[in-house]
Amino acid sequence: MRKSHPVRRVVLATAATVSAVVLLLSLKPSSDPGGAQAAGAVPQQTAAAQESPQGGAAAAGRSTVTGDAAQTQYGPVQVRLTVSGGKITKAEAVQAPSGGTSSQKTQLAVPQLNQAAVTRGSADIDSVSGATYTSTGYKQSLQSAIDKMKAARGSDAGASQGSGAGGSQGSGDSGSGAAQAKTVTGAAAQTQYGPVQVRITVSGGKITKAEAVQAPSGGTSSQKTQLAVPRLNQSAVTRGSADIDSVSGATYTSTGYKQSLQSALDQAGG
Fold first, then answer.
1. What is the C-alpha to C-alpha distance for residues 11 and 17, in angstroms, rounded to an integer?
2. Chain mean position to CA 78
3. With bands split at pLDDT 50, 70 and 90, how would you rate the model's confidence at 56?
4. 156-207: per-residue pLDDT in tens?
5. Half-sphere exposure (CA, 13 Å, Cβ side) for 149?
6. In terms of Cα–Cα distance, which of 133, 135, 121, 145 is closest to 69?
7. Of 228, 200, 198, which is closest to residue 213 (Cα–Cα)?
8. Which InterPro entries match (predicted)?
9. Which residues are CB-contacts of 90 (< 8 A; sequence separation ≥ 6)?
């Protein structure tokens, strides 16, 4: 067959076309999206998904707790704590006396008290000179916040132990832990200026919170109640008994408080 024969030209052209198609097919998989995923895109997405729970766990280790407001002669003081890893990392007063010279004293005292709370990690901090009432109220609310922080940590620890012990045993442990924390209200004690009645929260055989649900009010009685009750509450928690000191200038209220406190302790078995 001659080189210029038409059939030969057709055969050569067909062979060239087939070769080009084969070459294109062999190069296509390298740019295929499916191939890119097989090369490692899916593992990268999985790693990103694993990082999210870790970030959530870190955030869960940080919490905020606000103490009860402590009443002072010049207004309430209330402290909020930020806790991380069981330590106080930030303290701030969400309520503090204001108006007139009270605002000046608050601006002077609160930053120092906040810093002391973080440094000491407890309510055992020094009062700021010239702001005794604010300092006292701050320490009372700070102690309340710390008590709540400890109670929350105890609850978390109990829940962890219960989940590790198994299904039925865990339920029993949880019920036992709930039974240890209870609130008891003492009998109302009658005083010359009105009844005084105390309610306490007991956990693990210790008073974790005390409050007066009834106290003398009206005229100077309200002022004395605002002055005396926060101190009596704090003393009840600190001492863990009704053997607490009376507040000067509020003898009747103090006496009634101690009587009702003892009644509550008797009911609680303490």
1. 10
2. 15
3. very low
4. 665 555 554 444 444 444 444 445 688 889 899 999 888 999 999 888 888 9
5. 28
6. 145
7. 198
8. FMN-bd, TAT_signal
9. 81, 82, 114, 118
Return the half-sphere exposure (C-beta side, CA atoms, 13 A cut-off) of residue 42. 7
Q: Tell me, what's the pLDDT at 175? A: 45
Q: Is 247 helix (H, G, I), strand (E, B) or coil?
A: coil
For the chain, what is the radius of gyration of the CA atoms? 36
What is the three-class DSSP state of 194? strand
Which residues are within 8 A (CB) of 66 and not within 5 positions of it... i.e. 6 or more apart? 78, 79, 80, 81, 94, 145, 148
Q: At what angle are helices 220-239 and 251-268 packed, to 10 degrees?
A: 40
Q: Please list, residue by residue across 35-49, b when 16 or more beta carbons sit within 10 angstroms of its beta carbon and e when fewer do.
A: eeeeeeeeeeeeeee
Measured CA to CA, the distance from residue 2 to residue 267 in angstroms comes to: 122
Can you tell me which residue has the tokens 């810093």?
115
3-state secondary structure (DSSP) of residue 29: helix
Which tokens go with 267?
């009911």
> Mean pLDDT, to the nearest integer, of 108-125?
93
What DSSP element (H or E) covers 227?
helix 220-239
Main-chain phi, psi angles of 246, to 5 degrees: -75, 150
Of 189, 202, 177, 176, the closest CA to residue 269 belongs to 202
Q: Tell whether pTM > 0.90.
A: no
Write b or e for each residue in 64-91: b if 16 or more Cβ atoms lie within 10 A of its Cβ, otherwise e.
ebbbbbbbbebbbbbbbbebeeeebeeb
